[in-house]
Task: structure prediction
Amino acid sequence: MAQKKQSVIDPFGSTVIEDYQYLLEEFGIQPFQPLLNKITKPNMFMRRNVIFGHRGFELVLEAIQKGQKFAVMSGIKPTGEFHLGNLMTAREVIYFQQQGGQAFYCIADVEAYQDNRLSLQDSHQFAIGNVADLLALGFDAKQGIIYKQSTEPRVKDLAIILSRGVTLATLRAIYGERHLGLYLASLIQAGDMLMPQLNDFDGPKPTVVPVGIDQDPHLRLTRDLARKFRDYNFLAPSSTYHKIMKGLDGSPKMSKRSPMSYFTLHEDNEAIKRKISNAFTGGRDTVKEQRQLGGVPEICPIYEICLYQFVTDDQDVVNTYQACKNGTLLCGEHKAQTIQQVLDFIREHKRQWRNHFDEATAIVDATSP
Ligand code: SF4
Result:
């Protein structure tokens, strides 16, 4: 019998996924691919199976198809500069906003305080930069709602109300043994996901929460709570799940604990070049072997950052995969191409970021009392 691979999902710790198929079966997550041909304009994450799973996305899809109201909600924990995981989530939120969704972007400063011990003052400064990134990527702040958990009374009120629907035993079962602040942060997150359905925002509606798979425990808790509080007529929020990017150093996940495993959109060019140049690859030990046997893009973080973020044309991704497999593309050459693509993207992004910085400052300052 084939041995199942180990997977750990922990929104407050280290998530390791070895087998996405196993994950779908183990946690009852629906595969995303069967929905693909029903989506008129799938984004590149959907087309490339980077978004691999969902819970209840059919509801949102139906609303999009019928031109009915729906919302998209996600956000950022403001603990530093925008990294590639934040980039993916922001692009997903913007995609759904452009499909007609009422968009909510949460600055999760309560979670940053509880999980990372970051003061609300310090996270405020990070949030300004993060919101400038979001705006630079195309989020329409006039149509959307950007808010902070610590100053949004509706989210905190919902957390208080929802807390009646969950026991400590359930929280322990979902999150493991944690300090009370993290359980509180998870209820605040439930408030984030349900706020778009309050009457202040035009009442109950399908809501999609696009996140990394490590956030699924929050979705399970919130979907369960949404069904319990019938007076509100909440629809259980839907989710889409993207895969977790491998670390550049070959670790299972990009992580702030390993600086060589990731880069941010605001690091200097030399640091980014060095990290990509030194990255682990799926290449062979010698050029001769690689020419003969081809590389292994399936385990290669360089291939992954191209597939997930930096190569916009699907056919270019296919060509790269094949060139790697048949040994015509070598790792040195591919790393040099990737450095160029990443730096080109970042140069333009930083230009847009500077253009939006004052607007971001005004938005985030307005969230302070
Ligand atoms: S050629 Fe590119 S995709 Fe293939 S193993 Fe080397 S770096 Fe990775």
